[in-house]
Specification:
Strand order of the largest sheet: 3-4-5-6-9-10-11-12
Strand content: 5-15%
Number of helices: 11
Distance between the termini: 36 Å
Shape: globular
Structural class: alpha/beta
Number of strands: 12
Largest sheet: 8 strands, parallel
């Protein structure tokens, strides 16, 4: 397994299991299958509403000796309704209780969007807290306090563009150590990737296979189907592997962590085997030539809410 190395020399397995959209009743078994197959990186989030099941699977794996706690890298994310500085630790403590863990290896601010404490998803502008009420720098101070207390080993962000990263960097004591973003050959995000690497911010790719199983409310009629592109099919045929394995390997070849989600035992195993796929320089060039910039998870569920104080420019590069 290849690893991403943090400044203190901690190493995160570059390939992990994603748990977004894993249904109750599925994610428990998926996590166990993944750990048995050799995964040592599990990606979670409070808003996925399945962390209790993930925690049960981790507990069983630890008790049965499949893995030890120290062998598994566990990431989770602070939801938008706990961005106020005095609410950040409460958000983490709920996740730790659900996961049945004493600490996280990595904790991320899920979105640069703040909501009132009682709101899970906004319906009107009154559900939000704007940047004047809750500056990102305040939320970040809350994250730094968690690291200082030893409740999390590393802190970072998710869905942050360059301007929002710069906002954190100019006032932080601890710089963001990770940015988790939508990343696949239809959305290579070269500029953001370059900025993160220049500032020693590691990157994790979510929706690496095009998120075909995303909720219908997140789908548009003209969305292209990533896994049906001829370039990927040709490369897969050449190497005797699956299209999914090509897409996962593409991120790995860019030194970017990747967290494909599956609750199917054979696909979980096959996704892990993508770590051994050796894409050639001409393969990477063929993929780069696609030159697409299509985003599947566009954040309009925050920015198009009537009265929302947030815009697409708060999320993505212009």
């Amino acid at each position: 397994m290849k690893y991403l190395t943090f400044k203190n020399q901690d190493k995160m397995p570059i390939l992990g299991l994603g748990t977004w959209k894993s249904s109750p009743g599925e994610v428990y078994q998926a996590v166990l299958w993944a750990l048995e197959a050799g995964y040592r990186h599990i990606d979670c989030a409070a808003i996925y509403q399945n962390e209790k099941e993930v925690g049960d699977a981790l507990k069983k794996a630890f008790e049965e000796g499949i893995v030890s706690r120290e062998e598994v890298w566990v990431t989770s994310k602070l939801w938008n309704n706990a961005h106020e500085m005095d609410k950040v630790e409460g958000g983490l403590q709920k996740t730790l209780a659900d996961l049945q863990l004493d600490y996280l290896d990595l904790y991320l601010i899920h979105w640069p969007i703040s909501l009132k404490e009682e709101v899970m998803f906004p319906k009107t502008g009154d559900d939000f807290l704007d940047y004047q009420s809750v500056p990102l720098s305040d939320t970040w101070k809350g994250m730094e306090a968690l690291k200082e207390k030893g409740l999390v080993k590393h802190i970072g962000v998710s869905n942050f563009n360059i301007s929002k990263l710069k906002e954190i960097l100019k006032s932080c004591v601890v710089a963001p150590e990770m940015n988790q973003i939508e990343l696949h050959p239809y959305l290579p995000q070269d500029g953001l990737v370059r900025f993160c690497k220049e500032n020693s911010i590691n990157i994790t790719a979510y929706s690496p296979l095009g998120s075909a199983d995303r909720p219908k409310a997140r789908q548009k009629e003209d969305d292209p189907i990533l896994m049906e592109h001829k370039v990927f099919k040709d490369i897969a045929l050449k190497h005797g592997v699956s299209v999914a394995q090509v897409l996962i390997a593409w991120s790995l070849h860019r030194d970017i962590a990747v967290i494909p989600k599956s609750s199917n035992k054979e696909r979980i195993k096959a996704n892990l085997e993508a770590k051994d796929v050796e894409l050639q320089q001409d393969d990477m060039k063929s993929i780069a030539a696609i030159n697409s910039h299509h985003r599947y998870i566009d954040g309009t569920f925050f920015t198009e809410v009537p009265g929302s104080p947030f815009r697409q420019s708060d999320l993505w590069e212009n």
